[in-house]
Amino acid sequence: MNVAARGKPVLKAGVKRLLGRAGFDIVRSTRVQGGVDDFIPFEPTMRAARAAGLSVGDYIDEVMNGTPGATRSTIDALREHGVYAAAPRTVLEIGPGSGRYLERTLQECSPDRYEIYETAAPWAAYLVDTFGVVAQPAEGCSLAPTADARVDLVQAHKVFNTVTFLQSARYFFEMARVTRPGGRIVFDVLTETCLDPAAVGVWATKGGAGHDSYPAAMPRRTCVDLFATLGCALEAAFQAPMGVASTEVLVFRKTA
Ligand SMILES: C[S@@+](CC[C@H](N)C(=O)[O-])C[C@H]1O[C@@H](n2cnc3c(N)ncnc32)[C@H](O)[C@@H]1O
């Protein structure tokens, strides 16, 4: 049975069961140095989304982030760039958090296997229970449990602007390693295309509260040149809303 087919029937039961659990108010990435120390707390977020009559993904977009439709517009753009056209059978996502991109990815394709690497244990458990994904041990910047050239679509959304340069760079090598030839790698980074003086001013005056490591910038050229050496060509790039400004989504195709 594919992941999407399994996920939908268990959605309600999984949410209900997990809402009944106690002790998940603070989510800490204890084994990870230098990244976000905590993420959106699981239980209050689920409660608030339910009270607002929204899915957790829409609640985060609309209420918490003030960017309604942000997740959907990124998925729409990825569809337009043909990311789902090859019907990926294996998907891997780093840092899915609440699963707002994961859920919409499963509406676009029906993979047999969907692996996640998520350091926030309660959210990882929720995604396993709700969508039938496979949670791999998240050690900080390694995808070691995943074999070489095994994955059709590797993605990370709003992760590499919250962790350190070295964590992102180490993940980049791993993402290229696990992607099969012809597969896609999708992630966003805060590149110089998102950082004109006006945007820097907005971030400086209104952004980034709460996390010292957010937003972390990453040169676009560094990504493009590095992935080129790893056999991955830049196929598409577009802006997506993030926080008080924007981030750049990059789509690579592994050619060799
Ligand atoms: C800003 S949140 C984004 C969550 C989700 N992708 C989204 O856009 O809603 C960053 C996510 O990355 C996770 N994370 C942080 N460091 C990580 C690491 N080293 N490896 C895997 N996940 C990590 C956090 O727990 C969190 O779920």
Automatic annotation (TrEMBL):
SUPFAM superfamilies: S-adenosyl-L-methionine-dependent methyltransferases. It comes from the Bacteria. This is Methyltransferase type 11 domain-containing protein. The lineage of its organism: Bacteria, Bacillati, Actinomycetota, Actinomycetes, Kitasatosporales. Residues 92-187 form the Methyltransferase type domain. One of its GO terms (molecular function) is S-adenosylmethionine-dependent methyltransferase activity. InterPro entries: Methyltransf_11, SAM-dependent_MTases_sf.
